[in-house]
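To illustrate the input format used throughout this study, we show a single complete record. The first block contains the structure-token representation of the backbone; no residue identities are included at this stage. The design step must infer an amino acid for every position from geometry alone.
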């Protein structure tokens, strides 16, 4: 449900700009047909309810990541202490303290949102129920036209079979005007559009801009209906129509939001439009069409990521320098060493950039530096959940235990023991056992960078990671080499070691700062990144990627003990009574 809530919030924020734009345009071009504004409100409804949107360089829709960041990345955004990182595009912060824990605000807000939607629907159902009790005694006059002494105002009720209900005290002239108006509503299909508009409002009830849009939509619906009715009326008939509208403008306090009640909204504006009706001009129609197209292009699309707009300096790697080698990946370490430009190292003792290559190689071989480890980390990699992971590793024994929480709820557990990996899914209440080969320490002690790099069919290098002795691939999570160490650091010109003496969690760390490549910028919505890497082991302890100074991805180790102290939890089927094998 949290995922659904965040998606609705994203759509609501993205569409808010379009609501305001349509509200302004309808005031600027007053001599356009009113049905054109109804059409624009229909496009607003599509924007509010469609989860898919195109990207455009002309988009003026607000950036939703600025508001969603505190919900998606609550731990990172509330970091108390941070080392300031200054990059080419601005400033960002990387936490030097354990991310704060507390309420799961995303889940709480999701529950509140759902209760609001249910409340809106219950209100309509109750109101409809009261109204239907009033029309039980309605007398049919002619096809789809009914009269009841219990009613104070006329309205259309029904979607599949719409009916017009009239109070009994209408004069002949009032009845003529009212029936013409309500039949125009039915002819135009407004008995469909207004309930759909209310459905959109119910989903986005938390957004005051959507409430404004709904009110204006209802007014334009009535104005468009009036316009179609009075088109063939003379001045006297328009005056009678206006008098009937004024008579029923007060209406009833119990009037519900779904029926299309005559005299419902914007009565003063409607009477003015009726009495001083002016036909739409060619200029007004043309201006409305042009502004409607502009609004659609600018607000029906999402903005292109900044990384896609701005040119990024490319790493010059001549094609002949990229070897098309076999799976052994020979010469890759030499290739990286050769392509590091001179005088790029930020540290005084690393003017040639050799330390960058050494650190890169060390990070990709993280598992080789310790035998026993207890580690807890929090991460959010473009997901809508804050994930907390605990690892307990014993390489000598070849055993490990891993537990993963998402938004505070224990989601999965994974055991590695006796040449087997057991994965527990607590949501689905199933477990899966995999038997696999076992790497001895001698076989898996060290795999060089050259052996880990291969070339794909398109000529691009890819990182090939081997699993460690515990079969849990700790490095794939701790270092995240495919996404972080390799993807972010492979372009040597894009990053530097800016400090090799940063203290974090009682460890001496190397601080890396850089900009992303085109591929990473588009895939991960990031233009700058900062890493803290343990100097002794190469373990990545803290990582943040930012876009326009806002955090989009983060990973932060909150507890680390290299010697290890907690006993490794072993798998016992009795602990999971009621769980079933995934594959029978």
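Output of the design step:
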């Amino acid at each position: 449900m949290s995922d659904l809530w965040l998606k609705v919030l994203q759509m609501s924020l993205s569409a808010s700009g379009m609501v305001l734009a349509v509200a302004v345009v309808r005031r600027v071009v007053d001599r356009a047909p009113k049905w054109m504004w109804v059409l624009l409100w229909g496009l607003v409804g599509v924007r509010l309810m469609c989860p898919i949107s195109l990207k455009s360089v002309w988009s003026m829709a607000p950036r939703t990541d600025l508001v969603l960041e505190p919900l998606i990345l609550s731990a990172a955004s509330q970091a108390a202490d941070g080392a300031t990182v200054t990059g080419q595009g601005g400033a960002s912060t990387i936490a030097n303290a354990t991310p704060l824990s507390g309420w799961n605000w995303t889940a709480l807000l999701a529950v509140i949102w759902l209760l609001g939607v249910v409340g809106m629907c219950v209100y309509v159902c109750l109101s409809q129920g009261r109204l239907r009790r009033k029309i039980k005694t309605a007398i049919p006059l002619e096809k789809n036209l009914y009269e009841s002494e219990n009613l104070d105002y006329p309205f259309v009720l029904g979607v599949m079979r719409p009916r017009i209900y009239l109070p009994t005290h209408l004069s002949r002239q009032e009845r003529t005007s009212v029936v013409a108006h309500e039949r125009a509503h039915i002819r135009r299909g407004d008995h469909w559009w207004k309930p759909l508009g209310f459905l959109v409002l119910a989903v986005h009830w938390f957004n005051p801009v959507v409430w404004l849009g709904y009110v204006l939509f209802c007014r334009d619906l009535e104005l468009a209906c009036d316009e179609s009715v009075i088109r063939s009326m003379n001045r006297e008939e328009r005056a009678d129509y206006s008098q009937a509208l004024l008579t029923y403008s007060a209406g009833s306090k119990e009037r519900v939001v779904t029926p299309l009640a005559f005299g419902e909204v914007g009565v003063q504006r409607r009477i003015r439009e009726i009495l001083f009706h002016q036909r739409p001009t060619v200029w007004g129609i043309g201006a409305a069409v042009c502004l409607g197209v502009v609004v659609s292009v600018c607000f029906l699309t999402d903005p292109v990521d900044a990384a896609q707009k701005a040119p990024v300096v490319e790493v010059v790697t001549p094609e002949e320098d990229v070897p098309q080698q076999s799976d052994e990946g020979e010469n890759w370490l030499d290739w990286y060493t050769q392509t590091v430009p001179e005088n790029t190292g930020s540290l005084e003792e690393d003017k040639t950039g050799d330390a960058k290559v050494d650190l890169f190689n060390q990070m990709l071989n993280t598992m080789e530096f310790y035998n026993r480890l207890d580690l807890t980390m929090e991460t959010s990699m473009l997901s809508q959940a804050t994930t907390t992971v605990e690892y307990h590793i014993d390489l000598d024994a070849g055993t490990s235990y891993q537990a993963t929480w998402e938004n505070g709820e224990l989601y999965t557990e994974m055991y590695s023991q006796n040449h087997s990996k057991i994965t527990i899914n607590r949501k689905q209440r199933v477990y899966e056992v995999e038997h696999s080969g076992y790497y001895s320490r001698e076989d898996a002690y060290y795999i060089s960078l050259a052996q880990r790099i291969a070339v794909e069919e398109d000529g691009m290098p890819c990182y090939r990671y081997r699993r460690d002795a515990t079969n849990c691939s700790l490095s794939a999570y701790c270092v995240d080499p495919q996404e972080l160490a390799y993807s972010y650091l492979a372009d040597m010109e894009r990053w530097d070691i800016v400090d090799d003496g940063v203290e974090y969690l009682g460890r001496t760390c190397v601080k890396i700062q850089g900009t992303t490549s085109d591929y990473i910028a588009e895939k991960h919505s990031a233009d700058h990144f900062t890493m803290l890497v343990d100097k002794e082991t190469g373990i990545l302890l803290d990582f943040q990627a930012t876009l326009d100074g806002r955090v989009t991805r983060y990973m932060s180790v909150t507890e680390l003990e290299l010697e290890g102290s907690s006993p490794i939890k072993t798998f016992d089927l009795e602990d999971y009574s009621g769980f079933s094998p995934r594959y029978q």
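Structural context for interpreting the output: Residues 2-80+110-134+181-303 form one domain. Confidence is low (pLDDT under 50) at residues 72-102, 306-340, 437-447, 465-482.
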